[in-house]
Amino acid sequence: MALFLFLVLAAVVLGLIGVVVEGLFYLLVIGVVVFVCALTYFALRFRRGGRRR
C-alpha cells in the first residue's frame, strides 16, 4: 500500500510541476503515466486478493 501511495504522490507532484512550469509539459505526461501504472498495480494487487496476515 505504501508503494501505491508513493506512486500517486509522485504522479501528483510531477503533474503539478508540468502544469505550472512553462515548457515542462512532458512532466505532466510522465505524471499521468505514473498514475495509470499506480492504478494498474493497485487493481492487480487487490484483484488477486492479496495475502492475509
Name the features.
53 residues, 79% helix
Report on this model:
The chain is mainly alpha-helical. It has 2 helices and no strands. Helix 1 runs antiparallel to helix 2. The two termini are 14 Å apart. The mean pLDDT is 84.
Rg value? 13 Å
Runs with pLDDT <50, length 5+?
none
Give the mean pLDDT.
84
Secondary structure: number of strands: 0
Give helix % range. over 70%
> What is the general shape?
elongated
- In terms of DSSP E residues, the strand content is under 5%
- Span of the ends, CA to CA: 14 Å
**Structural classification:** mainly alpha
Please outline the major beta sheet.
none
Tally of DSSP helical segments: 2
Order of helices and strands: HH
Outline the secondary-structure elements.
Layout: H1 2-20, H2 25-47
Helix pairs in contact: 1-2
Summarize it.
The chain has 53 residues and is mainly alpha-helical. It contains two helices and no strands. It is elongated.
